[in-house]
Amino acid sequence: MIPGQAWTAVSSTRTAFRRSLFQTLQVVTVRPVISHSHRHHQFSIGIGTLRTMATSTPAVGLINTPRDPNTLANYNNWRTVHTTTSLDILFEQQKLKGNVVHKLEAITDGESDEILLDSSHVQIHSVKANDEPVQWELLKRLEPYGSALKIKLDQTPKLNETIQVAIELETTALCTALQWLTPAQTSNKKHPYMFSQCQAIHARSIFPCQDTPDVKATFDFFIRSPLPVIASGIAAKDNPTSPSQDGSLQLYKFHQCVPIPAYLFALASGDIATAKIGPRSLVATGPEELESCRWELEADTEKYMEAAESLVFPYVWGQYNVLVLPPSFPYGGMENPVYTFATPTVISGDRQNVDVIAHELSHSWSGNLVSNASWEHFWLNEGWTTYLERRIQAAVHGGDQWRDFSAIIGWKALTDSVEQFGDQHEFTKLVIDLKGKDPDDAFSSIPYEKGFNFLYYIEKLISKPQFDRFIPHYFETWRGKSLDSYDFKTTLLEFFKDDEVTSKKLDTIDWDAWFYKPGLPPKPDFDTSLVDVAYRLADKWEKLESESTTGGATDSFRPSKSDMDGWSANQVVVFLERVLAFNKGLSAAHAGLLGEVYELKDTRNVEVSSRYYQIAMRSKVDAIKPFVTKLLGEVGRMKFVRPLYRGLIKLDYELAVETFEKNKDFYHPICRGMVAKDLFGSKQEKKKE
What we know:
With 689 residues, this protein is of the alpha+beta class. The chain is built from 19 helices and 26 strands. Among the domains are: 373-516, Neutral Protease Domain 2 (Neutral Protease, domain 2); 532-688, Serine Threonine Protein Phosphatase 5, Tetratricopeptide repeat. Strand 2 and strand 3 (41-44) form a beta hairpin.
């Protein structure tokens, strides 16, 4: 229990029953919606719950609707089994041009003579089915999901019949998945650069597809570029290894034999070099950064892989490589198969931030091999991955205190996210309602940390040895598939059904509360041995602040750099977050002293500097402004960018807007959009203060 907060059941188990009725002029999806106050189903209509699409003829019979509300594809009639992409990377025009061929299999028997694919701001030139031109149209745009591509077939295929759909296309300036960098935006200023970020629903802005994690397909990549290419598949041995001398296009081939959802399609191209960081791993990055990246990652990558394999089962993707991207990459990492796309903030020169790699590696099992069926169940990807990551940390670093240390940091991130949304907000639930919503708007630490805490709770409830028996079973059962939270529950209970003792323990889980209760879950009793020293130092600063404010006598505490002797960067982070959590912030004088004594302003470790900047901004330290604006022009990772802008909004709103306008083209489109919402959505509130 959380003090002062009842942890009660709030909803009944939601049904999986969903149907759609296809009519002559519209497709209406009717979804059962749970009433939280009454245990019965009601029906409502909307997107996600209502889709209106122009159609020429009614489909035959009743058709089950997809369980993913964030796709316009009729993937419960057709499933993509293989995709071949043949694309030219045209840097001068900042677009991809070529074709995509989907091999689609009918999963109903004579019930659908139309194929609906997700598409968003893609210019389509032609569509063929089995090499023959077919009727097609882009339906009216439906925000935020795009314009469905409707393909009319000459006949109604039988069950298991396959069709090859070939689409000639090019991306446009409105593509939300791609970022293009000029030579001036790269480290050596010699060549342009591009990379993709397709999660959650952005693959559809590169090519029409079934853009849902509930569909998985194998991939072939045939990519032409004047610069080296990275993709989410195994590279052909004869791929070029350096930029073309005359700027002509060179062919790069990749194959992904493990079925993946469309959001794991990934491309990057630029002046990229590679180096070994393990027996089955490479790092790829700019030539000038290659040595520092190699040094940062080579000590731990294989250790992480071996620890993960001992916990689950052997790695299935062949190679595990890391692409360290330019600084505008919006995430800490993206778990693209074969090549994790990683933020350069991992490269801090002290090997203190490489646990990001443990997280992305864990996705090789959780998320990539076993996937959430929709973004409403995102915790199945990220909660499991965070759990595996922390088990890896414990194995590599030597004990569960390391896992709990990371979990304590995560708990602070969780409380921050709940505070940001509000503790009754839909997005603070473990299972959320995304009908008619953009999954990007729900992105936060909640699925990571609330999901982790749910799995941690189950482990503590039934014992680690028992949960360790379940882990490989779960991933083997759902290997190559997608599932929702109810599938997870069923799998867990079924596994232990013959174990009377464990079954009784599992019967005590309040599933409705864990799935649907907003706000914070019960806080576990974490091992604080690695954070106590940080807490004690923070307490000294809080007492120092209190005594100076009240005019009372000060004790013997005199801040010194030696206060942090022997600390890890994460212990410094815990200390700073403790200071951030003070009910009353430090005075400007004490905030300035904090940065000066512990040399926090100029550290290369952004995890540390960004948190200190938040403390200084809260304390109205005007001298911190140039440090904040400088960092906001150098780092595009949303974990740092969004909190820094929020702090700057309160300190100097005009400077925040000016900084954003100066750097908005540096940020990835996803980051740019989210910061714009933070900035301009906060304007009226700012005026009220």
